[in-house]
Amino acid sequence: MALGGKTASWISRLDPAAGPRYLQIVTLIGDAVAAGTLRPGDKLPPQRKLAELLDVDLTTVTRAYAEARQRNLLDAVTGRGSFVSTRKEQSGPPIDLSMNIPPAPKGVRLAELMQRGLAEMLARSSADLLMTYHVGAGSLAERAAGCAWLEPTLGRVEPERLVVAPGAQTALLALLALQAGPGDALLTEPLTYPGLLAAARHRGMRPVSVAADAEGVLPEALDEAARNHGSKLICLTPTIQNPTTVTMPAGRRQEIVRIARARDLTIIEDDPYSLLAGDAPPPFAVLAPERTFHVATLSKVLTPGLRTAFVVVPAGASRDALVSNLRAICVMPAPLMTALATHWIRIGAANDILQGVRREAAERQLLARSILPASARAHPNGLHVWQPLPAHWDRYRLIEAARQEGLGVTPSDAFSAEGRAPDAVRISLGGVPERGRLATALRTLASIMGSDSTADHAIV
């Protein structure tokens, strides 16, 4: 049936490659509300009529309307139909701009990839084998897949240097346990990944911030901190740093390596974003392979649910102690998920997902750049934005004002290694499924930042 007329002016054809159809319908509604095509109080077509217009079954539309009501996009009035909600979002979870996860890639049927991948795996291996204990560094096939995945970043790596871990967080905790003990100082950026800080404090270590500028950690500050604190360990995220989005240039990386060698520092390189960036300088694992543990997770470039990360140990080092620590913490990665990740890498599906995530992240960054203040900092393919606040706002009032509008963002305090934090927030762009809803959230946040911080932002 043709899509025409005033009633269906907001409706467009569904994309067979864009994921579940009911969620695409929710996206259509959300985008139309964000654009003003649908206004509060507007009546939507009856479910059966919309099913005919979109050439889908009635169950799909029923599920879409139910999901839209759950997100407070629609109100249902018994006997009258469904209407665009006149309420601000006051119930349910906030619009999540706090969780750094990759956006769902458009044009990639993740559910179908999972179904087909699992079927192909079961055709080659028994379910019993996939569901039993798998101990050690990972099978040769899994480690070879990890090496192939990291080759664009690290070049050729021998499988003997690679360990498969159940996520980067577990890997970081295992590495800290391997390299340092209670009371030892861990050198890191002034603002860094909260999971690293939690792991360090769990180990009884002292996070010590090393002064940084717009290019990352300062070499002279690193030298001084290593001398003053007697530390032999530094953990850095040199590419699309979390939260500041800084990518350390090649020259600065080489200077850091010079200091690390002079002070005999071991480097833990937390590198979740290089494959997204696509333009990063050589990593520490290439510049100083003899002293760098390189941690690369699939959670930020594919999907968190795989719970798979790859750790490359320094050249010439044994991986046995790391494997032992990982086993003590988490026994093993989930074999089913690791096998699926290995299969996707082998057949090229993982790269398809990566390219889809990169494209969607780039589109969301363009959207954010068009809405947020010019002071916002980001990488063109990154998952988040670092937003320094205007002088008339402090982060605590901003977080509260955003919360009252149903928005969740992350304050700088969460990233502070030593308790000092600027008035800034991290805005994550991947957790909101629909771009239209993301645009609405960003406009609301920009409006709050542009307003008087003493104004009352309570929902009425």
UniProtKB/TrEMBL annotation:
This is Transcriptional regulator, GntR family. Residues 19-87 form the HTH gntR-type domain. Pfam families: Aminotran_1_2 (PF00155), GntR (PF00392). It comes from Bosea lathyri. InterPro entries: Aminotransferase_I/II_large (IPR004839), HTH_trans_reg/aminotransferase (IPR051446), PyrdxlP-dep_Trfase (IPR015424), PyrdxlP-dep_Trfase_major (IPR015421), Tscrpt_reg_HTH_GntR (IPR000524), WH-like_DNA-bd_sf (IPR036388), WH_DNA-bd_sf (IPR036390). Keywords: DNA-binding, Pyridoxal phosphate, Transcription, Transcription regulation. SMART domains: HTH_GNTR. One of its GO terms (molecular function) is pyridoxal phosphate binding. The lineage of its organism: Bacteria, Pseudomonadati, Pseudomonadota, Alphaproteobacteria, Hyphomicrobiales. In the C-terminal section; belongs to the class-I pyridoxal-phosphate-dependent aminotransferase family.
